[in-house]
Amino acid sequence: MAPTQAQASSSPTQPTLNRDIGPWVLMLYGLGTVVGAGIYVVIGDIIGLAGALAPIAFLLASLAAGFTALSYAELCTRLPESGGSAAYVSAGFESRFLTGLAGWGIVATGIVSAAAIVTGFVGYSNVFLSISKWWAVPILTATLTAFAVAGIRQSSWFMAITTIAGVGGLLWVVWYGWVDLGDFPRQFGSAWSDPGRSLAGAVLPAAFLAFYAYIGFEDLVTLSEETKDQSTAMPRAIWFTLIASLLLYLLVSATAVSVLPADVLRESRAPLVDLVREKGRNGYLLGAVSLAMIVNGAMAQIVMAPRVVHDLGRRRNAAPDWLARINQKTGTPIVATVLSGLAVTLLALFFPTEQLAGWTSYIILSVFAAANLALVRLKLRESADEAAYAVPLAVPIAGAVISVGLIVGEMML
Q1: So where does this one cross the membrane (predicted)?
Q2: What is the pTM of this model?
Q3: Read out DSSP for 223-238?
């Protein structure tokens, strides 16, 4: 990679991001970025499609997402930079245009996703109490932005604590449905032999939807410059996130379908809360926990987007220097963070975020395909150094093929 693209605008005299994230907090951060709203909200839609075969849908989705996640595990050790996907595209293709396209594409998807999550938070809150988005959105976004501005240590601990609470809520759901879970093998066998729930007609569409419940590792790798022992901690965090999220999804989906009918879960605005209510509890505690977990997704995006902007400005000459500047005291890109939070607020208040979020899936899948192909190119270069963590060449090839296949599949739906 040409030095003018990666290093020219970087100066040792400028403030840098602080290495404040330990390996355990990083693993919890990663789990929070992936699980988030995925299990608390969309599980009803996935079970509505696949019924008792929902665990298979989650398993297939984890395999599909796993190839790209493992490619990122190698890429982040080759290029431990805050740009994440943008840095990988830059190294693989050595194109300023493609780098800027990937970087700003990731920033845009992060901001839109955060706005959609904040909007969803307000809608989900109204299941329990009536609140207005006109004051709830600004307060929530301002709070998350304040954590992101204060420092990565504060942001990561916020993510870690809310993740522990969220996972605790999921285990609580499994505990209450444990007796009913004994009936799951019978339901699974019945669904497997049901001609109305074929693999192609029910499980694959559910797996397509479940794929988006596994992405988040592309946010995690943007913390590479702020992670202690990054070359070992980051790949471990990605592996932990994949395995832990899969186990949670399998357990919770099997429990949910054992307690409530698939059509009830599909129509529910808060499926897991309704499950707890079915077992005789009021559901308010789980509702609060689920809201905290949903907020995780927005926090991760508000943290991620400014770091990519920082990399684009500091190393790629693809963003203004004033926007990429790191504050000496907080060790964070304050201007980029505040502007990201403001953009999230405006989008959540005045734009159709669900429609915008639908388009972001094309961008994220395109970036996944480009990052996988970048790793293929890096591996095939004779001068390429061996990474601290390496995967077989077949992994990024499979990741690229799956990403392109998902883009085609989404266009056909």
Answers
A1: 21-43, 49-73, 101-122, 134-152, 157-178, 198-217, 238-262, 282-309, 330-350, 356-375, 387-408
A2: 0.91
A3: GGGGBTTHHHHHHHHH
